[in-house]
From TrEMBL:
<keyword id="KW-0029">Amino-acid transport</keyword>
<dbReference type="InterPro" id="IPR003439">
    <property type="entry name" value="ABC_transporter-like_ATP-bd"/>
</dbReference>
<dbReference type="Pfam" id="PF00005">
    <property type="entry name" value="ABC_tran"/>
</dbReference>
<dbReference type="InterPro" id="IPR027417">
    <property type="entry name" value="P-loop_NTPase"/>
</dbReference>
<dbReference type="GO" id="GO:0015424">
    <property type="term" value="F:ABC-type amino acid transporter activity"/>
</dbReference>
<keyword id="KW-0067">ATP-binding</keyword>
<keyword id="KW-0472">Membrane</keyword>
<dbReference type="InterPro" id="IPR050086">
    <property type="entry name" value="MetN_ABC_transporter-like"/>
</dbReference>
<dbReference type="InterPro" id="IPR030679">
    <property type="entry name" value="ABC_ATPase_HisP-typ"/>
</dbReference>
<keyword id="KW-0547">Nucleotide-binding</keyword>
<protein>
    <submittedName>
        <fullName>Amino acid ABC transporter ATP-binding protein</fullName>
    </submittedName>
</protein>
<dbReference type="GO" id="GO:0005524">
    <property type="term" value="F:ATP binding"/>
</dbReference>
<keyword id="KW-0813">Transport</keyword>
<dbReference type="GO" id="GO:0016887">
    <property type="term" value="F:ATP hydrolysis activity"/>
</dbReference>
<dbReference type="GO" id="GO:0005886">
    <property type="term" value="C:plasma membrane"/>
</dbReference>
<comment type="similarity">
    <text>Belongs to the ABC transporter superfamily.</text>
</comment>
<feature type="domain" description="ABC transporter">
    <location>
        <begin position="6"/>
        <end position="240"/>
    </location>
</feature>
């Protein structure tokens, strides 16, 4: 059986005096694709950010690759270098060429030379079908292409787990389709993934496990079959809403 890459244990987290994640426990194994779904404001994005301590939990434990990130004894920069994170917005540097956007973390975090970082960047840009755009600037690309650059940048780190926070939410349907196709290719590469998405068909395709959240807690968790036959009323209600939305787009 594959080993555990990530463990969240009774995690509570939030902003100012408001708890957004309320005692969530969750694990991800090597190569496993965990899809997190739920209504807006249910704590999904905060949970993802808590997994690499971009949001620090108020209580509970976060264990990444066997190291307790909440212990205060772990170099967080070194630990985060084992992960890749793709946000809703692309977070690219507009003044830097595409290849340099991808290469920069390799140089700053992994210690690659300029030449080695460029080679690796070109390799992953080829994987996402953007090698020919390597000398372009982000604003010369479509939104879908920019998000694929962000995916390439995350893949360049050779992550043990890839976090994706609503990676298609800012895109129109046509651009969304090209990003989802890239993510399907990524999913087939065997990297563990923790994905927040409202894309029901995509979730059904890639999920090994599904987590439905509402109001900061897990209301249902199970295999991909959950997306066809949820057991709880709250999960059924949510999936009915997004299923109707998907049918309209």
């Amino acid at each position: 059986m594959a080993g555990e890459v990530l463990l969240l244990e009774n995690v509570v987290a939030g902003y100012e005096n408001k708890a957004v994640v309320k005692g969530v426990s969750l694990s991800v194994r090597e190569g496993e694709k965990v899809v997190i779904m739920g209504p807006s404001g249910s704590g999904k994005s905060t949970l993802l950010k808590t997994a690499i301590l971009l949001v620090r939990p108020w209580s509970g434990r976060v264990v990444l690759d066997g190291e307790d990130l909440t212990s205060g004894q772990v170099d967080l920069r070194r630990a985060r270098a084992k992960t890749g994170f793709v946000f809703q917005s692309y977070n690219l540097f507009p003044h830097m060429k595409v290849v340099d956007n991808v290469a920069l973390p390799l140089r700053l975090v992994k210690g690659y030379s300029k030449e080695a970082a460029r080679r690796k960047a070109l390799e992953v840009l080829k994987l996402v079908g953007l090698e020919e755009y390597c000398e372009k600037y982000p604003l010369q690309l479509s939104g879908g292409q920019q998000q694929r650059v962000a995916i390439a940048r995350a893949l360049a780190m050779d992550p043990i787990i890839l976090f994706l926070d609503e990676p298609t939410s800012a895109l129109d349907p046509e651009l969304k389709a090209e990003v989802l196709e890239t993510l399907r290719d990524v999913a087939r590469r065997g990297i563990a993934m923790m994905v927040v998405t409202h894309e029901l068909d995509f979730a059904r395709e890639i999920a090994d496990r599904v987590v439905i959240m509402e109001d900061g807690v897990i209301v249902e968790e199970g295999g991909a079959s959950l997306l066809w036959s949820p057991k709880t009323e709250r999960a059924r209600r949510f999936l009915k809403v997004i299923g109707t939305s998907s049918a309209l787009t």
